[in-house]
Amino acid sequence: MTDRTNGNGSATTVRILDVAERLVQTRGYNGFSYGDIATELGITRAALHYHFAGKAELGQALVDRYATRFAAALAHVDATVPDAAARLQRYVDLYTDVADDNRMCLCGMLAAEHRTLPEPLQQAVCAFFKSNTAWLRRVLDEGRADGSLAFTGTAEDSAAMVLGGLEGAMLIARLDGDVSRFRAAAARLLAGLAPVPA
Amino acid sequence: MTDRTNGNGSATTVRILDVAERLVQTRGYNGFSYGDIATELGITRAALHYHFAGKAELGQALVDRYATRFAAALAHVDATVPDAAARLQRYVDLYTDVADDNRMCLCGMLAAEHRTLPEPLQQAVCAFFKSNTAWLRRVLDEGRADGSLAFTGTAEDSAAMVLGGLEGAMLIARLDGDVSRFRAAAARLLAGLAPVPA
DNA sequence: GTCTATACAGCGATAGAC
DNA sequence: GTCTATCGCTGTATAGAC
């Protein structure tokens, strides 16, 4: 609970993560400072350094928590939704929740700033997308096998299309806070994978 | 030629724009400084302020030039390519050129950082995407009319899907410099709009 | 058109008191 | 666990010489 450079533990640590997460998702890693978090929480910058040694460690903790949550959500979908097409829809729903908040996907935002990030963060972002693509590929393959989805080419390629399509739709929908824009684009993306040609 | 706060004119001004453009596309607006440009060009930060009053004005000039070039490229496609499906392919080719450089679309990068940008820049980025969506919608409608493209729903929604799909695929392809990933995702995107169901 | 010099704010980070 | 105080660095920007 009192360990430094650790994302778990005290209520303050969690509040820091929550604020920082929102700041990264709305302004980007290079678009916020320790000062922003400190002001919002009514503490000092120095206090932040007690919970997270530096901005790099804070960023790492953010991605770790985000990836863990995402993986848990996907595991839950796997365990409760039998149909592949329905699982894919649930995946889109996860992104829709983020878009509804007018946020960008945490890792999507970090992907844009990739070149400027500390190296461990770069790898964590990469790993997030690799894991997402792997999950999508599996669901797409299963859907094609059971007939609930239809597409040509490799599942890998279609997985990249879905992932990219969702991230990009999010990126642009945020511009005028038009979430319906995201929903429409996501729906068109899924329509292209429907077994009876759209 | 000698006007301050102006993106046109001297060779130095153009070189500044070129370097700044690449920096924004790879590192983001908040990920580079006047110092980065000055170092690369072998001049001082102070000299930069002669050509562009501030970073905001430089950013504005970047988006203006980018949008103008893009509009010219689309106008050229309109004037030389009769088939709607072929025009759409040309549009994708424009994005592929950027992805090949392992860059992000200038306005896609700025879209991620949208909330942190000076207000005039925010509007310029919005305008870029509105104009892109309008062009795409027109081509999609024409393609559906002449039978070279096929899709359900509004052309507006499919335009948002294409635009978002390309921006997102770019975003993710940059992570491991895997351009083939972008090409594959873009191809799948177009496949979903082919008149004979993929 | 580019320079030196400088101002001034903000950043991430550290030391040490409480 | 949070504070004050301070460091060193970098950022944008300006004034004025050349």
Descriptors:
homodimer; 198 residues; mainly alpha; Tetracycline Repressor, domain 2; 9 helices; 72% helix; 0% strand; elongated; disordered N terminus; DNA-binding
Task: Describe the structure concisely for a colleague.
Two copies of one chain form a homodimer. The first copy, chain A, has helices at 11-27, 34-41, 45-51, 55-80, 84-100, 106-112, 119-146, 155-173, 179-191.
Can you walk me through this structure?
The structure is a homodimer of 198-residue chains. By secondary structure, chain A is an all-alpha fold. Chain A has a domain at 55-191: Tetracycline Repressor, domain 2 (Orthogonal Bundle), CATH 1.10.357. Chain A is built from nine helices and no strands. The radius of gyration of chain A is 18 Å and the shape is elongated. Chain A starts with 10 loop residues before the first helix and ends in a 7-residue tail after the last helix. At the A-B interface, helix 6, helix 7, helix 8 and helix 9 of A face helix 6, helix 7, helix 8 and helix 9 of B.
